[in-house]
Amino acid sequence: FGKITRVDEEGLHFKVPFMQSKTFMEIREKTYIFAKTEEMDTTMEVSTKVMQSIKIELTVQASIADPEKLYKAFNTKYEQRFIRPRAKEVVQATIAKYTIEEFVSKSDIINADIADDFLSYGLVVSNVSIVNHDFSDEYERAIEQKKIAEQAVERAKAEQQKVLIEYENKVKIAELELKEKEIRAKANAVESQSLSKQLLQK
Fold first, then answer.
1. What gap in Å lies between CA 80 and CA 33, rounded to an integer?
2. Which of 82, 141, 156, 194 keeps 20 to 30 A from 3, CA to CA?
3. Which residues are within 8 A (CB) of 28 and not within 5 positions of it... i.e. 6 or more apart?
4. Which of 139, 161, 160 has its CA nearest to residue 48?
5. Is residue 100 within 8 Å of residue 48, measured between CB atoms?
6. Which of 40, 91, 33, 37 is nearest to 59 (CA)?
7. pLDDT: is 147 or 94 the higher one?
């Protein structure tokens, strides 16, 4: 009459005709895919800390540890009523704390958050994987402009370094020329001092 009387595992079991019914639940690990397939598109679209949009393809591997708790909360429609919407909420809440550059490295945090949330309803999560992500066109353009700007800065630094080296080389050449002139002047002075009238007459 709608009351759960017992939970049976595999094997031979009996029920009271007309009074009892059976509901089957697969407790083995299952992979829930959040991606674009031929049947449907369950790709997640989430926003980062600075409201940049990301499309994410995600897989969640989970198994049922407490079928009675899960059944009482969501009947057999736990995938549509709980797993899919709740996974989206957790991913969005987690990614909203970080910038677009940081989120890729936060899969372990997403994994832990989903695992904690699912466990409260009798589901054990073994793994959460971000299999693909696609940034918005605006972000792609911003990244491209940033790279162009960085390349321009590097070129300017290289040009500046080149000019500095050329200047240093000119200074060194000038110093060498000055030393050469000083040596010549000293040599001329010594030579002129050694030329006496007697030596010239001789």
1. 12
2. 82
3. 63
4. 139
5. yes
6. 33
7. 94
